[in-house]
Amino acid sequence: MKKILFGLLFMALAFAGTACDSGSNDSAELNLSVSNIDFGDVRTGETETRSFTVTNEGNVAIRDLGVAVQGAAFSATPTTLELSVGASADIEVTFAPETDGDFSGTLTVASVEEAVASNVNLAGLAVDAIVGSWVSEGQNIAPGLAGAPFFNVRIDAVFNNDNTYNVVSEDANGSTITFNGTWQATAVNEEGIRGITLNQSEPAALVSSGIFRINGNSMEYEVIQEGLTGVEPPTQSGGFGSTTVGGNPTGPFWIQNYVRVD
Question: Domains plus CATH for the chain?
Answer without folding.
Answer: 27-127 (2.60.40.10), 132-260 (2.40.128)
